[in-house]
Target: L-sorbosone dehydrogenase
Amino acid sequence: MAMGTRFFTGLIISLLVLATTNAQTVDSLPPISASKSYSNYSNVIGWKNGRTPKAPPGFTVTKYADGFKNPRWMYVTPNGDVLVAQSNSNYPLWKKIGAWFIGASKSKSFKNSSDLITLLRDVDKDGSPDERAVFLEKELDQPFGMLVLDDWFYVANTNGLLRFPYKPGQSQLSGKAEKITTLPAGKANRHWTRNITANKDGSKIYIAVGSGSNVGEKGAEAEFMKAAILEIDPDGSGLRIFASGLRNPVGMDWNPVTGDLWTAVNERDGLGNNLVPDYLTSVQENGFYGWPYVYYGQNEDPRVKWVPSAQVENTLVPDVNVGPHTASLGLTFYTGDSFPDKYRNGAFVVQHGSWNRQVLSGYKVVFVPFENGEQTGKPEDFLTGFIVDGKKDEVYGRPVGAAVLLDGSMLITDDVTNTIWRISWEGKNGM
Model:
């Protein structure tokens, strides 16, 4: 029996044992026939003449740093250094030519991955980095998620998890890499990012791995150990699937009140303007979230010809609808102490923006309010101003990831314009 077939068979058997006992409700979703599917690529024109994104009154948005090579993800070390992973898809020549013909090349970079991690250090604590260094440029292959745990720096390549000896305050890594596990990549690697986070006591590392395809059309073998959040011990032992059926989980963070793991997920394309909504959700151990068979509960995807009843019956419903085709990537719960009280312990979700919708969606950062660890309201716009003219499909930039600095301000990466933005609160406290 092929490895991928064993994986899917084992998953079905495990789901037969699971039972979802709590009643679940979902937002009303339109029928698949409500609209046709569109390819509509935005045109990124860049930020000129001092223009910046827009935040609510009382906040200030400034350029923190620029001059990168497709900055995708950030990590703030315990001593406050900011590490910036610069990476991209490695498209073959024929895809680059095709992207130019269909207009996709105006929406994103099609340069090969720079495979570089840059360190930014704010020595005088004035909200702007004074030092900049190449932190790591060896043994990287589409690096994304980063983590400092004990005396190690971990980085997730698209095809493996590495760790290097690390001391606080290092500006550049010099030790030898240790590959603690191989991660699934292969030819079908549509969602190449591999984010990582550790639990509170540092005993487990969690790895977000997106699907190799849109809806499983490449076959079971191509999706082995993908569309899932994996769990592993820090030494590389004990690799297992923690949760599955997550088409493209990227951002991950821990609910600061409950301690639960949450993730931001990109749902499937090709079912029309308003299907399927991306989502923010808590992640249950051994939970199954639908992909590729169903979405948002038990809504079947007609393109998937065989749907195992056990998975349909046990599919978990996501917690928060963040809109269709928004490409919600970044996620951080705000635990700083400089933003107004309403933001404390709430979630910021960074939306890279649509390509599969007639009217652009996403291209902003939204805030989801939480109290006592529970969502208390719908997502609300926080950082906007990325869209120039919706009728012309022009945008200034495309936000990707978020990180909170030790001073409580927040950074947002803008990959296509090679910029990092800083959002700080300058108003009255407690508002």
Q: What stands out?
A: The chain has one domain: 31-425. Helices lie at 3-17, 93-102, 309-314.
